[in-house]
User: Fold these one by one.
Assistant:
Number 1:
Amino acid sequence: MSRQRTLRVWRGDGSSGQFEEYTCDVDEGMVVLDLIHQVQKHHAPDLACRWNCKAGKCGSCSMEINGKPKLSCMTRLSDYEEGAVIQVQPLKTFPIIKDLATDVSWNFRQNERITPFTPPQLPEDGDYRMQQVDVDRVQEFRKCIECFLCQDTCHILRDHEKKEGFVGPRFMIRVAQLEMHPLDTVDRIPATRDEYGSGMCNITRCCTEVCPEHINITDNGIIPMKERVVDRFYDPVTIVLRRVFGWGKRA
Amino acid sequence: MPTDISEIDTITHDVIVLGAGGAGLRAAIECSRQGLDCGVVCKSLLGKAHTVMAEGGAAAALGNADKRDNWKFHFRDTMRGAKFLNQWRMAELHAKEAPDRIRELEAWGAVFDRTKEGLINQRNFGGHRYPRLAHVGDRTGLELIRTLQDKGVHSGLSVHMECTALGLLTDGGRVSGLVCYWRETGRFVIFRAKAIIFATGGFGKAWRITSNSWEYTGDGQRMAYDVGAELMDMEFTQFHPTGMVWPPSVAGILVTEGVRGEGGVLRNSEGKRFMFEYIPERFAPETADSEEEAQRWLDGDDSSRRPPELLTRDVVARAIYNEVKEGRGSKHGGAYLNISHRGEAYIKKKLPSMYHQFKELAEVDITKEPMEVGPTFHYAMGGIRVDHDSQMTNVPGLFACGECAAGLHGANRLGGNSLSDLLVFGRRAGLGAKEFIDANPDLPALDEAQANKILDWAKAPLMRESGENPYVLHDELRDAMTAHVGIWRDEEGLAAGIEVIEQMRARVANVKAHGSSQYNPSWSEALDLDSLLLCAEAVARGAKMRQESRGAHSRVDFQGEREEWGKYNIVIKKGDDGQMSIERVDRGEDPPHLAKIARATLEQLEAGDV
Amino acid sequence: MATTGGHVQGFGQTNRTDRWWVGPAATAGGLGAWLLYYAWAAFQGKYWAAGPYISPFYITYTHPTSVTDTSPAYAFWGMWPEWWPALITPALILGFLPGTFRVTCYYYRKAYYRAFFGMPPGCAVGPRPVNYRGETGLLLFQNLHRYTLYLALLLLPILYYEAALSYSWGGELGIGLGSVILTINCFLITGYTLGCHAWRHLIGGRLNCFSCDGISEARHGAWRFTTWLNIRHMRFAWMSLYWFLFTDVFIRLMSMGYLPDINTWNGISWIADFH
């Protein structure tokens, strides 16, 4: 049951470009990435687009489909009205390399700013011990496939372009994952406020809405980090308890 | 595009690691730990490598889930799974060192699922005597790569992302550098190093139906072969019996063995539960012979025998293939795998990712309707031949580890052994490079003529006025490989496959990449074709030579294992005439101290007699 | 304004083709309508009690200037001093406690930043072009959400007390439609309050080890319960908000004689039946 579908795709580089339309045969069950591959094969062999696993596991094929940040390998053509043109664009938040490929290297630099996991000395029997209930929260954040859709949709990075002041949702949950790790010994709370910019987030939750791994970035990651910052810097009671009685300090 | 070598940027490191999957990152981290200046070159972004797709876990005899487990059991399981065609020493090192590599990951931040005692939990898997797979739900590969990535960026590695390697340079037989291009700009770059580690993965993209990703084009195998490295065991390619077959866009994506473990039933288009027809003689005594008995087993009756759907992967894969070939396939050319009789709540609890995978990609509700499944190319047991301890190839200074290297898995890989392979031999490759550089501390010279040759080859598809469409050629190769070098092989089909490959080679020499060199996927597609063809040819020729059926290699015309063939590995290299040379290499005597363990009975091992 | 990549720039600008504005519009409508009603009801100062029922808007209050013959004599705080200005109705004071709690609530912040402030109005929709500082500048007070939680927690026992009193009329225990409405009101507000993000942090979220000792294990249990509510925080926020309003409307209409109550004291009973 072969049909046709028209893809409207942005072609160009960092300085200029325009939308081009291509019409291809499509099969039942196809995803947007398949349509892009059809365009490459039959119309525009040099159409730039990142992809790897095509199974929603690597997070490479992020783009904006009809204005929404999505993984193109997990977005089915049948989600869109038959006959309607589907529009694809590169991520807005990052500089364009070519066509649908953007320069996401800023994200990798943010990871370098975050103090890595630092466990205590290994116990004598050679095994660290952690209970499942203590790592459940951490494991949720570790589902992240670094597709950077959350970074793309975050208005702080996307529209206000405050990339100097905020590491973005992906790295807020990276920090949260380290801070909630039952073995980690480093204190990243001052950096969370001053360097990673937890105060910049106004919790409008778009990061959580676009996450293909369904990680609850806002409620489970960013807000708990904001509350830990409050404990340290804004709540007079916890500040006094901590200063005077050493309350809440890590072992 | 510069034509003069002097206009090309040169980057020098002590050691270059090509590939940033699990093996590459582990090797690079080891190099850094050894005080080497290490550069990692990878063709995608950091953290996107194929390792993320591993689900089940990493096999290591930690003995957390069952205290009786130790390296000897793991070693024995690996040897038997490999049908004794793997390298004894590698299997020994792997079994002994895997537990430390897993514990080390934990110290670097990996968060594995836990036992009640708070230790790393381990799960059962096919071929493993005890629960042995350290895991994180069904996303262990992601955990592994993210851990290594974070460790790596804080270990002083220089990561060169989206940089595609084109060819190796040598200086008096020793590797001296790597010619690459940046995807973003299309500009060439030459990396110079004292040692180079390949961790480039497999080559499943030469097949139509595969669970492999875009990157799996066999670049490492081709580049190593070109400078004289040997390839081994290339005929052993693992087909997983259950991949998705529909819709076309997701064909090949894995359907976990857990579906059958939970009671999934395979039927053909006539509604017949065909696996009962395919029970091998040696498994007949322990396999149910009627649907009633299979159902009783599922209901928990200990005196009943296992359903035939739970036979080994190669048996099930061949059976499904046969049903389709004889015209009893499902609507889209597979078999029907049905789990709906277990009820909605149970399925959603036990197989959540399968439920979502089918719901989102195929609009199939597996709690109500059957899945369509068929065999999918999954893993290359063969690859670049390496020294067992140092992972160095026969080309001095060139190392290989991970899926691109051969030796650990022999004729068949056990599930869970690939992730531990990456860690154990990634580290060993790093140590090997350190040892090599200590003995050979000078930076080898750059041979401009060699580099120019590679550059000319790389530029050709862009420079041509017109020529073949690389996407179409790739498609044709994939169809041919699936048709002729699939699960069941025979002399005639393999010969036909080789003929197709040879004809295609001439066409690939005339391939045209339209557009500029900047981020041009058709250019990379055009350049990948040579690597794909090389691997395809090596597999086909190896398969044609090996006149027996062993592990993942099945010959219609030579069924069953032949004792004589158990003495040889097939080694392929570039002959002096430039043609592919292929020979049987004698495995030599079995090392007695290891053979004793591998051939011991379980009772002997459990009693500690060996 | 179009930019490279085919993106559009500017407030409310987007390439989204779905009806993204439905969400913020509904939020603005829902919150706006509630606030209008509240503003009117809070100053109006009449018809806030009927029979054994007292509107949660006025729950702590019996103001001398608005005492009518339908006022119950048992309001929680008793009579307020004579000098109290009539314009500052108790509904306003009362509104301050849960009001600040809701204003600084992590859910409502999302709702009104999107619906009223356009920061941003929707995902991948252009926000108002301002020098954005998030919650670091003027909005730093949002960090004191936990103190508004303490105030809101204080209110809970009072709500339950008043709801409990509605089960008795003229010294006779019983139950009426109003008692049920008031009780549901308590449950919804409790569900909302205990699903609070700050509460979730304080009760257990701040710990890194839940299994290390008995107290931590107990706190983990509480944290899990709060997490269950927290996942439904938005739902509880809206349900409790409007049920609160509905409770007031019911008592108001009853006290005005437009609606009867159904109860065990008088069967179907109009306001006059309670005299």
Number 2:
Amino acid sequence: MLIFLNHLINGISLGSVYAIIALGYTMVYGIAKMLNFAHGDVIMVGAYICFFSVSSFNLPPAVGVVLAVLACTALGIVIERLAYKPLRQATSLAVLITAIGVSYFLQNGAQLLWTSNIKMFPSFFSASPIGLFGGELKITIAAIVTVAACVVIMLGLTWFTGRTRMGKAMRACSEDKAAAQLMGINVNATISMTFAIGSALAAIAGVLFCSVYPTLTPTTGSMPGIKAFTAAVFGGIGSIPGALLGGVLLGVIEIFASAYISTQMSNAIVFAVLIVVLLVRPSGLLGKQVREKV
Amino acid sequence: MKKIRLSKTNRINFATFGAVILAYAVFQFMSGTGMLSSTIRGQLVPICAYVTMALSLNLTVGVLGELSLGHAGFMSVGAFAGAVAAAALPIDSDPLRLAASMVIAALAAAAAGTLVGIPVLRLNGDYLAIVTLAFGQIIKSIMENLYIGIDARGLHFSFLENRIIFRDGGRMLLNGAMGVNGIAKISSFTAGFVLVMLVLAVIFNLVDSRAGRAIMALRDNRIAAESVGIPVTKYKLMAFVISAAMAGAAGALFALGQNTITANKFDFNTSILILVFVVLGGQGNMWGSILAATFLTVLPETRAMRGLADYRMLVYAVVLILVMLATNNPTIQDFINTRFRRKKKKGGAAK
Amino acid sequence: MSEQQKNSYPKPKLVPVPSTNIIPERDVDKRPILECRHLGIDFGGLTAVDDFNMAIGRTEIAGLIGPNGAGKTTVFNLLTKVYQPTRGTVMIDGRDTAGKTTIQVSHMGVARTFQNIRLFGNLTVEDNVKAGLHEHTKYSALSGIFRLPSYWRKEREAHERALELLSIFDMQDMAGYQAGSLPYGAQRRLEIVRALATNPSLLLLDEPAAGMNPSETAELMNNIRKIRDTFQIAIMLIEHDMNLVMGVCEGICVLNFGRIIAKGTPDDIQANPAVIEAYLGRQKEA
């Protein structure tokens, strides 16, 4: 039973990281109707920035995180302006390929700058876990921080999109850009803001992910990116609660599959579950069932 | 037989065939007279394989109009099926064994395509794409954990762990994550050329037929296709399975030109690579796929690019982004449309 | 349309059939091609169509009119199973269509055009028509790939049939043009040709005259009659152009807020106060 709970906690913790990444995908999809394949690599960049801040410049971890967030936010805005904005009228496939180009660019740029030697991400949290139930159930500080961060981010985003002007502008743009523009909303600024938020979240996710899986290479962001993207679709692409649900479920399924069925096949099982869910609910768990107008 | 008036499409098709035949003749000549560097010569078979992959993916993306992000999975199935078949088949003649292996690979990939196609059919757009991505990952995981061995009693299979016990002197063919080793390289440029020609012929003939019209109709407007009674599911599956079979044959060709193949050679990155070929060459444009696949496979190996050494992939990425930006720029698009587009009614209203 | 033209075309006598439906007298011996009884659909809490009863004679030209949002296209969608009805039955040529799909209903002989034109934009005009011929000029995919004799034979058949159908609207010279590049009116006509290619017993036209000028509309009226007379099929139109409706339709059904408010000949409908109120509103008390 306690082992089960251990796995559950690990799953929720990993899932929280996926959820944070998935949020970036889902928000950008909601507003720009594009799948930002470069998102996973922004995570990697954030992790590297933090790594170098702490290891090479001996800055305190909090500063490292802030720097990573700032760098990624800037990166996200720049990418959007240079590579995606000119393609707003293009087919979604064209934008997808461009996003892939950006992804290649980031990965290879990182490789040139920082080599593909594995960097060991420093642990920010004390390694000794908190013991409950007489020391049987071990919860790492990292796990607690991760889940807490995810909850805070979710609540913050829900408040932001529901209550603030910019948040409402985002929701308007994701419904109908042309109409939003006619209402006086600055669509360009809103889209840039969305990318900024998504990228900032990516930086945080990068730090959290590497706290648990400390090997850092230019391709570190790739697999979590794919999985988080899957989680976003799983939960219903475009839905913020969907990203949370999808991410956490995916993390839990991954850990349980790895523990109880097979570590080697855990990825396959995760993807298989996704397929089954999409067959039953073709728009994802919380996705809108959009009826095509005939 | 009544003379068939050649329409413009037919002329383009024949031109494409002609160009491929010409290219083959030229390259074969250059290769034979030692004009090609050994690097390029070594790339001839992979080029044919990637061209076939691009053509087959174009059938799904360009003709059927659905995004597939797991195409490398079918290549993978074909590669391993082909490699195992080539090692196990008791055929002495290399070309015959190659041909048989490629056929087996195509059938195996077609079976995989059917398995994937059935769940995929219910979905559309981005969700379909995600499911193809998921299947690509699943296939990769399966191949990494599959063990196949052969001895006097025949083939033995094992999954997740290698529990194969040999009698009468056997050997491992597929060794899980280690892949297949010691492959006898029986692929040839000629075989690659034949494959490309066959695949082109099948695609052109399919597109210019009742089935092809049905597939393109459901791409252009699924609801309208249903309203004229076209069985949408059947044709979606058809396109998918044919595309998978071709990818499988390409995989076998590729594998039998290498010493070793492992499952991680056919991962998401490979799927994306092929997708880039198709999009750059133009969706539905077979000639474009051939050019893009050839050019982009050869390009990293040329002296110019090798000179850039580490910056090679970075330059590739930048060029890719710039090309996408350029081809989707409205000014440039209008230019292309007015010069090269098919006949339009004068003063035709926009869609 | 002049009075003379209107009067010179023989007006059919409408007779009631069991239930409150009416069909042309000449069709009364044959089974109605379409019969709807108590057809209705709810979308969540909203009832879009309710208690829709209608019969169409085998060679009748019927009209379905009503203000915007009345549910007319929804009725078409119910007949073609784009939506599954919540209640009621639809019988095509006496066969119940419960549980059937759009594709199956098409095979039963129902063809339609769409309010927002749905052509196969990247295909040629001829290929659009050939797509309509899909279920009638058949050969296997393998035959197409390997170019067996049946391919050549059937393709020639399809080609000839397509040109024949296009000639109804004098469009045979446009056969090689890309469908998506045609002018609006031509696209509408092509959609009708494609629907006819499926050899239907019932043709549903959704606002066929939308965007047409009066001379084009008059031509369309003649073409609709020509189609009915040549193919001996039933046609149902949704239309807002009253000249067209009153000029060509034999039996008209008026819909408002998802319910039928009147049924009858053009003369009946034009005089019906409920219809006038639905379109123009009630006259204010003096």
